Amino acid sequence: xxxxxWAIVVAYLAWMVWDGLKRSNRTDEVEGYFLAGRSxxxxxxxxxxxxxxxxxxxxVGTTGQAYATGFRFxxxxxxxxxxxxxLSVTVVPFFHRxxxxxxxxxxxxxxxxxxxxxxxxxxxxxxxxxxxxxLAAPSxxxxxxxxWSVPTTVLVLAVPMVVYTAFGGVQAVAWTDVKQMFIIxxxxxxxxxxxxxxxxxxxxxxxxxxxxxxxxxLQALDYRFSxxxxxxxxxxxIGGLFLMLAYFGCDHSQVQRYLTAKSVDExxxxxxxxxxxxxxxxxxxxxxxxxxxxxxxxxxxPMLFNxxxxxxxxxxxxxxxxxALERDFQAAIAxxxxxAEARNRAAFLDRDREVNAIRAKAVDLVRAVSGDVQYTDxxxxxPTFITTQMPVGLVGLMIAAMFAAAMSTAAxxxxxxxxxxxxxxxxxxxxxxxxxxxxxxxSKLATIxxxxxxxxxxxxxxxxxxxxxxxxxxxxxxxxxxxxxxxLAILTKRATAAGAFYGxxxxxAVVLAFAFGTSVAFLWHNLIGAVVVVAVGMTISLLPPRTxx
Amino acid sequence: MCAVVTNDRDQRHSTDDLGRMNDQRxxxxxxxxxxxxxxxxxxxxxxxxFGRAYS
Lengths: 549, 55
Known about the structure:
Largest sheet of chain A: none
Oligomer: heterodimer
CATH topology of the largest domain in chain A: Sodium/glucose cotransporter
Strand content of chain B: under 5%
Number of domains of chain A: 2
Structural class of chain B: mainly alpha
Shape of chain A: globular
Order of helices and strands of chain A: HHHHHHHHHHHHHHHHHHHHHH
Number of domains of chain B: 1
Helix content of chain B: over 70%
């Protein structure tokens, strides 16, 4: 990497820490630290909501998935706009009127302490692992680029983020999110411009789309109704709706964002910003991945995008086998390029299939030699493009954008983990009466503690298949059940504390059974969890109370 | 006495104003919701057309 690119990355990191710490003088009480004194404008909260959701996983994993399979991933977001509308008129007013610090505090007001504690515990379990994966994604990228170890990279990324989150509180998180969101969008737009400008003279943008379309990459919608297919229109609209309702309505990493808004209306507007812009933004990111595929039709791609693995295999006991594959690969991509330039659709598709088959053999070889059976090449596609094909200066901007995406998500999650730890556990169960200064001090310690713990998780979660799916799978273990218990709380007055508590346990048990015992795709787990909690919870609630003997 | 009447009238006016503001807010919200759903429908239709046109 060029010195200018490094300078941009270092300047970005310094700016974020400085900007975050600038906010620390306004966080001298717990409400300021965790809720910004409920004072933020809707547009800042809205950008913070979007930045928290748009992680480095979105940049690295989604572009990689689009490179490999195209636009299909967009179906994941089909339920989001409706979810935002529903949340802005239901959950948001409830939380604001209840005056709570955390989403789970409301469950005690409505049901009892054990339901609140169990829900908060589920959040902590799910979010901790998710935070680890969120930190791991850019660490994989940077370590592949500069040759650092993954643990070193995790620390370089996490330490500045933990510093400004721990000392600046949620205000630092929200205002750095705003800046980070602009850096991310600028980076993606820059990548799209470079990709379009890199097309050969004789290949127009329409030709590029035709080539991508011929391989099925522009087929965004899959109308088949299948429980085992991960991304379909139905899993997106129905399973995705429940996932988004749960994520934005019950996951404190998002609820905390809109609790910082200065009024109910501003909180509602902040969510509607995602309803307007999330799908278009996601389409822009997916388009980037598809354009990277087109780019590599006319510029020689590496057989493996992870150069570290490639070097290890090439120097290992099966090096000769690898070299033979490399020769076949070079021949196949040369023929594919000729067919693409000649617009010979049949020959192009044949050669593309051949290229994919050779690459699959190379990936299998890596798995066999390294023993890493989870290895997937898609996470390295976009980083490789950035570092080898983008001009000096823009490489730094793109790396900064990846840092921004990772830090915005991780900081929001870190702040929410500390908030739930202190408000729902420490202040509720351990030290019930203490000065505000005491809670503020332990809140900062909790933020630092969770940051360290997340680093450890990140170091062991850096290679678990497609990263975007890993984090969503983790979330889907818990989200449906959490949503179910909030539905019981908000939608019906007849649900009892016992119904909510045992319904939540039943929902979790059923989701885990489905996750490990069936091939039902993870998006459906959210629907299953919510339905089971509501059904079991209402059944128990409607049972006649036992009378004393 | 007059002051009380005036206050009542003021109170009535502000209640009316609040009611009108609430109605306006509901109408605005409804318009925003419809806009969002129409935008999503347009995106889905666009994706469907796009997939067909470039397949």
